[in-house]
Amino acid sequence: MQFTKMHGAGNDYIYVDCFRQPTPADPAALARAVSDRHFGVGADGLILICPVDGADAEMRMFNADGSYSEMCGNGIRCVAKFVHDHGIAVRDQLRITSAGKPFVLDLETRSGKVERVRVDMGEPILTARDIPTTLAGDPPIDAPFEIAGRTLAVTCVSMGNPHCVTYVESATDELVLGVGPQIETDPRFPRRTNVEFIEVLNRETVRQRTWERGSGETLACGTGACAVCVAGVLTGRTERRITSKLLGGDLQLEWDEATNHVYMTGPAAEIFTGDWPA
Fold it and tell me: For 210, which of 70, 122, 186, 224 could close a Cys bridge (C-beta 3.0–4.6 Å)?
């Protein structure tokens, strides 16, 4: 099986072109194998690029633990780059689906290769039962959340996948690596959740660390950055346009008041290609 390793702001995945080769029979098991950073290729997960009716491609994304994910903001930018750069659909605007939902992506190219992508991430999901969470509020905003002997204020948003955003003075390893996995699997999140620990630098800039559902801490989380943009407006901490500074780089976010859509702009890069034994 041929594969391509790509990353968006350090959020790295193994990509498989299912236009030109068969779809893997067991993508969950494959995701676990190729993602292993000691015995596999090493990645935050596996993304299949598949043909689909009514769009340029379909993204099917699996976390490093093999669990399926509805959406990946950094991943879909890389899918757009692959589709363009590898000749599947060479246009400045592409339409890619994930979990049955279409996304429109605008491509910035240099010398015929995609460097940055702006994604219309659609409307945030703010109803508690649809996020989903059992916390009170539509959505829960700065809701008190007792965990690991402390009380955090959390704001919950879905961007097609669930996010729990909490603002802290310092996003320490103790919080991200210690408390993050406990929040991920807390029963108040029926489908588990991604967890964002956010330091507000000013009203237009935040620093973000994410404990990602099914993958652990990642260098960037695009849907998480979108959720942070929404949470910042809901809690009055930040403006509708922000820059999120992640471990792997910066993402630009906007929650447009007129359309209610969230837009994300960031890089996409191809690292290398290889062959995985069948």
Answer: 224
Residues 6+ apart with CB under 8 A from 149: none
Residues contacting residue 129 through CB under 8 Å, at least 6 positions apart: none
Residue type, 46: L
184 is written with which tokens? 């991920």
Active site residues: 72, 221
Question: In a 3-state reduction of DSSP, which class is residue 160?
Answer: coil
In DSSP notation, 179-239 reads IHHHHHT-TTSTT--EEEEEEEEETTEEEEEEEETTTEEES--HHHHHHHHHHHHHTTSS-
DSSP character at residue 18:
T
| pTM (2 d.p.) | 0.95
152, 145 contact by CB (below 8 A): yes
Q: What's the distance, CA 188 to chain centroid? A: 21
135 and 126 in contact (C-beta within 8 Å)?
no
Question: What is the C-alpha to C-alpha distance for residues 86 and 221, in angstroms, rounded to an integer?
Answer: 25
Q: pLDDT tens across 28-76, in order? A: 999 999 999 999 999 999 999 999 999 999 999 999 999 999 999 999 9
8 A C-beta contact, residue 30 and residue 46:
yes
- The pairing of strands 249-255 and 241-246 is antiparallel
What does residue 28 show for φ and ψ, rounded to 5 degrees?
-65, -45
- The single-letter DSSP state of residue 125 is B
